[in-house]
Automatic annotation (TrEMBL):
GO CC annotations on file: cytosol
Protein name: Phosphoglycerate mutase
Source organism of this protein record: Enterococcus columbae DSM 7374 = ATCC 51263
Keywords (A to Z) from UniProt: Hydrolase
Keyword Hydrolase among UniProt keywords: yes
Pfam families (UniProt xref): His_Phos_1
Gene3D superfamilies: Phosphoglycerate mutase-like
Catalytic residues (UniProt): H11, E88
Residues holding substrate: R10, H11, G12, K13, T14, M15, F16, N17, R60
Annotated site (Transition state stabilizer): H175
BP-aspect Gene Ontology terms: negative regulation of glycolytic process; regulation of pentose-phosphate shunt
InterPro entries: His_Pase_superF_clade-1, His_PPase_superfam, Phosphoglycerate_Mutase
């Protein structure tokens, strides 16, 4: 059986990413720079053989996957579908506000003076999720357990399906905090401040129901592809 791997891409940079606004279940399209970045990632992985492709059902993830597949040597032949379970976190009534506002509210809910003090205290994903749930006046945010179950089962089901079908590499497009959270669920030493850039790739191995981490937020694929784009223009 072929080794089972998930290549998990964070979607391209969006309007709200650029404006530094909270973007969980709300959605904005990729910017011109965001599209170019994903074109770079796409060229960087164009020769990797993928047995399937899955993105979250958010528009920015779908747009990202379409660009990736358009750059791939066999993109038209790779089976692709969406899965709502690998969406970003739901920030409830905090959605759409400025990042600084949300990261000002959460520390206060957790009785910290500010964001830096909260991070220095090694605040956990669980505590942050519970603070978001408490701060959400619209009652849309998920509990920690609901969030954990959604994210884990989403990625595990993809990996299990690939393994059951003989293994191989699956191309996934998800979201920054969701990817960081998944890395923490697999290895608790990965904290809240994991760096997951737009267009970076995190690679997971999967065998007999167990994930192991090969790479987190790898920018090399994107950088190689952007270099190729630049050389084509010269």
């Amino acid at each position: 059986m072929t080794k089972t791997q998930l290549y998990i891409v964070r979607h391209g940079k969006t309007m709200f990413n650029t404006l530094q606004r909270v973007q969980g279940w709300c959605d904005t399209p990729l910017t011109e720079i965001g599209v170019q970045g994903i074109e770079g990632t796409g060229l960087g992985i164009k020769d990797i053989d993928f047995v399937e492709a899955v993105s979250s059902d958010s528009g920015r993830a779908i747009q990202t996957m379409r660009i990736l597949l358009s750059k791939h040597k066999n993109g038209a032949d790779i089976p692709y579908h969406t899965d709502a379970r690998i969406r970003e976190w739901n920030f409830g009534s905090l959605e759409g506000g400025y990042d600084a506002e949300m990261w000002g509210v959460i520390p206060r809910v957790l009785n910290y003076a500010n964001y830096d003090e909260m991070i220095a205290a090694k605040t956990t994903f669980r505590e942050i999720a519970e603070a978001i749930y408490e701060a959400d006046t619209a009652n849309w945010a998920e509990t920690y357990e609901t969030l954990k179950n959604r994210v884990l089962t989403g990625f595990e089901d993809i990996a299990h399906r690939v393994e059951k079908n003989g293994g191989g590499k699956a191309l996934i497009v998800s979201h920054g905090l969701t990817i960081a959270f998944l890395m923490h669920l697999i290895d608790e030493t990965n904290g809240v401040r994991i760096d997951i850039d737009n267009g970076s790739i995190s690679i997971l191995n999967y065998e007999n129901g167990v994930f192991s981490i090969e790479a987190i937020g790898d920018r090399s694929f994107k950088e190689a592809g952007l270099k190729e784009l630049t050389e084509r223009k010269e």
